[in-house]
Amino acid sequence: MRVAILGVGTVGEQVAKILIQNQKLITARSGKEITPVIGVVKNLNKKRDIGIPLTDDMDAVLKRDDIDVYVELMGGVDYPYRIISEILKRKKAVVTANKALLAYHRYELQNIAQDTPFGFEASVAGGIPIIKTLREGLSANHISSVKGIMNGTSNYILTSMMQGGASFERALKSAQELGYAEADPTFDVGGFDAAHKLLILSSIAYGVYGKPEDILIEGIESITKEDIFFAQDFEYIIKLLAIAKKVDDKVELRVHPALVAKDKMIAKVDGVMNGISVVGDAVGETMFYGPGAGGSATASAVISDLIDIARDVKSPMFGYKIPLELTPLELLAQDEIRTKYYFRLTVDDKMGVLAKITNIMSENNLSIDSFLQKPKLKGDENGVTLFFTTHTSLELDVKRVIEILTKQEFVKEKPFMIRIEG
Ligand SMILES: NC(=O)c1ccc[n+]([C@@H]2O[C@H](COP(=O)([O-])OP(=O)(O)OC[C@H]3O[C@@H](n4cnc5c(N)ncnc54)[C@H](OP(=O)(O)O)[C@@H]3O)[C@@H](O)[C@H]2O)c1
């Protein structure tokens, strides 16, 4: 089986290397030799040592008749969408690790692909085989939730803040120095990368449609040391969670920082690692842990798709031979989310302020579960910081309370909220 690698960077280079290094084993497992015959790059002058011929002539490679599978590892959305559509229309198999592309165009690509193999195991959680797990291993189950840490960069930053006492800025700088974060980290710390992965998984778990702009996405940029201290005092860990949950006949999809009880397995997933919990009605809770990124771990997933294609193993792209329901499940409106909440409020240190806050909360259906006021530090001129957690509440009520509190004279900074998950 002859393979062209479109994009020979961090992942593409490793795909070529592992295909060559593990050739005997891969041939034995797939029943065919899988040979990387050409790689396409943008800049031919870059120094690389990968042992396959390279070109910058994409059109020439797309026109070749001797390629059986194209592996897209360039990144981006519009350009790879155009290229992959062209390849699939010619009935040639495709493998990609491109979650951004799939977050926007997975159903169009499914329509174009029809029975032509299209592998995307590497697009979610790098080395963790979560796509195959959901699509094959857990296919007997109604999935009640898929919840996890799907972005290693944010998890590294939060772990550094929790364990090393670093500020967000310092933890981000260290992530950048270690090569875990891009120069522009928005995509990772803003929650968008995790949202792309969540959308892909939710297509398999629930058959739901949805694009990034349809779901709640919040990042970790506003988490402070105070939030970390509060979390620790109350036996919580802060994690950036991607959550897909079935709520009656709707599906809730959201990505945001969350307080997670310290004893939960997901709370123990530290550093750049990823961890995903899937709950099914027959199997109960299952948990998957491993490297969510990195050239070699991601290449491992890319090659597993190539081996499936060589073996002629064909699974429907999102796991459904026929549509799941006549009417697809709908996404739950963001205002209808129900969970527990944590609030951080900086207010004037005056008599009566606390009573006013609790009044506003109770008038808007928020019931307080716990409250903490840290002793005021010397030189702390900007008021006093209060921390609350609530019982299960409606997102719409929480938004209203934040809006009302923001307008109060005694409130010194916009109130900050984190959702609590278990
Ligand atoms: N890195 C990871 O850990 C990881 C994990 C999971 C998924 N992914 C996904 O895997 C894909 C590749 O990521 P990566 O980290 O390997 O990216 P990368 O290191 O930036 O490599 C991209 C490669 O594509 C080539 N390229 C870009 N635009 C091109 C164009 N228009 N024509 C021809 N070649 C082009 C680049 O050429 P030059 O080398 O000449 O610049 C480079 O070889 C992305 O979709 C990413 O989201 C990555």
Distance between the termini: 47 Å
Low-confidence stretches: none
Structural shape? elongated
Question: How large is the count of helical segments?
Answer: 14
Helix content: 25-40%
- The share of residues in extended strands comes to 15-25%
Bound molecules: NADP nicotinamide-adenine-dinucleotide phosphate
Query: What is the averaged pLDDT score?
Result: 94
Largest sheet: 12 strands, mixed
- Would you identify the CATH architecture of the largest domain? 2-Layer Sandwich
Q: How is the quaternary structure best described?
A: single chain
Whole-number total of structural domains: 3
**In CATH's first tier, which class of the largest domain applies?**
Alpha Beta
Family: Belongs to the homoserine dehydrogenase family.
InterPro entries: ACT-like_dom_sf, ACT_dom, Asp/hSer_DH_NAD-bd, HDH, HDH_cat, HDH_CS, NAD(P)-bd_dom_sf
EC number: 1.1.1.3
Domain ACT: 342-422
Structural notes for this entry:
- It is a single chain.
- With 422 residues, the protein is of the alpha/beta class.
- The protein folds into 3 domains: 2-123, 3-Layer(aba) Sandwich (Rossmann fold), CATH 3.40.50; 134-290 and 329-334, Dihydrodipicolinate Reductase, domain 2 (2-Layer Sandwich); 338-420, Alpha-Beta Plaits.
- It contains 14 helices and 18 strands.
- The strands form 2 sheets. Strands 7, 8, 9, 10, 11, 12, 13, 14, 15, 16, 17 and 18 form a 12-stranded mixed sheet that branches. Strands 3-2-1-4-5-6 form a 6-stranded parallel sheet, with helices on both faces.
- A hairpin with a 3-residue loop joins β11 (273-280) and β12 (284-291).
- The longest helix is centred in the last third of the chain and has 17 residues, at 295-311.
- The protein is elongated and about 80 Å long.
- The mean pLDDT is 94.
- The chain binds NADP nicotinamide-adenine-dinucleotide phosphate.
- NADP nicotinamide-adenine-dinucleotide phosphate binds at residues 7-12, 40-43, 46, 58, 73-75, 79, 97-99, 122, 126, 293-294, 298.
- NADP nicotinamide-adenine-dinucleotide phosphate (NAP) binds next to α1.
